[in-house]
Amino acid sequence: MRATVRTRKKKLVHTSLVKVEQAAASRIAAACPHFQVCGGCDYQHIEISEQVRLKKEILKETLSRLGGISWDGAISEHTAKPYGYRNRAQWAYREALPRALGYFQTESAHIVPVDQCPVLSPALHETFLKLQEMARANTLPTGLLEIEAFADSTDTKIALNAAFERFVKPAKGLIADFRAALPNLESLLLLDQSKNKFELFGPGYLEQQAGGFTFRVNHLSFFQVNRFLIEELLQTVVGGKKGVFALDLYAGVGFFTIPLAKAFSRVMSVDANLAATQDLRENVKAAGVEVVSENEHTEEFLKKFTERPDLVVLDPPRAGLGAETAARLANLGAPEIVYLSCDPSTLARDLAVLTGSERKQQTETAPVHRYELSEVQLFDLFPQTYHIETLVRLRRVT
């Protein structure tokens, strides 16, 4: 291949592709005409099985390089349909001519106005096309900055978060604009950024089904994005687990908490997002289980919590635990930890502390227990992108 240099650093050079001289056997035609212009996808030119193989290699290399962890065991893979999987998406809007609704170009603030997005669920794709028609017809409300859309588990109902620089007319008028264009719009949350003011139309949440449970998910809560792997992810994390006390960190709306509450005598959940915690408490009531729910940052919670659970489940954001919090988690001494990570780099840093690797960062809290990896699994929750979701099981060895 031939490429041109975009940026050059001491140990890193960024380039742009000029021409493929000889294509690899796994190179395929991208499904989307906007690929390599739109910044949403990275790997559409790679056959899906090769994407997964590459992600496994990247994961192993990152764990070794950053965490000092050599994993020679198998990495189980969980895959599903590579397109039509997203139940949530965010679109930026440019009101100035030429008007555009779409995604940001890679490493740029430029908005790429796309005509299709094959990774979206059918309901989200239909919603996007209708909003794009409004953008091009100049009928989207004035002052709009971005829209976040999400679909329920049946892919029939839609909820929107619409952020405005400021409301140029009463909220009722804005709501009417969206309702007229989107008949399946179940709930709409409007934000006036100039006043930090919200206006809600509808129930304020959608419902997701998984594991025989119903999860209420409001506009400001997180839920798993790949609609095809939700059930498999849930069963892989909590299936077959039972005991006296389980601790669920970064619990969100209770995706893992509620199934755990059916299998453990006691369950405690921790999450800093108040909206998600309110959802969790409603979901707990609906499921008829008992959970002690703490609305607090995990970092602060672990500074004072000392009780030993039988199982810890954690699904932190991209930043991970952090070395100090990982040390405090180790000191709880749970026999088993299940760590679901969306970033191999921060996972490697945290595992270095939990396993006592030579690569571990120094912490004020000295870990008194050490863990070893017993299982590593890769969930390809974001096909066509570089994102890697990893499930690691750890068992206490000291």
List descriptors.
398 residues, alpha/beta, 8-stranded mixed β-sheet, 7-stranded mixed β-sheet, 9 helices, 26% helix, 30% strand, globular
Regions with little confidence, pLDDT below 50 for 5+ residues: none
**How many individual helices?**
9
Task: Describe the largest sheet.
Answer: 8 strands, mixed
Straight-line N-to-C gap: 51 Å
**What is the strand arrangement across the widest sheet?**
3-18-19-17-16-13-14-15
Structural class: alpha/beta
Name the helicity range: 25-40%
Mean pLDDT: 96
Shape: globular
H-E string: EEHEEEEHEEHEEEEHEHEHEHEHEHEE
Number of strands: 19
Strand content: 25-35%
Rounded Rg? 22 Å
Walkthrough of the structure:
This protein has an eight-stranded mixed sheet with strand order 3-18-19-17-16-13-14-15, with helices on both faces. It has a seven-stranded mixed sheet with strand order 6-5-4-7-8-9-10, covered by helices on one side. The radius of gyration is 22 Å and the shape is globular. The mean pLDDT is 96. The longest helix is centred in the N-terminal third of the chain and has 20 residues, at 48-67. With 398 residues, it is of the alpha/beta class. Helix content is 26%, strand content 30%. It is built from nine helices and 19 strands. It starts with a strand and ends with a strand.
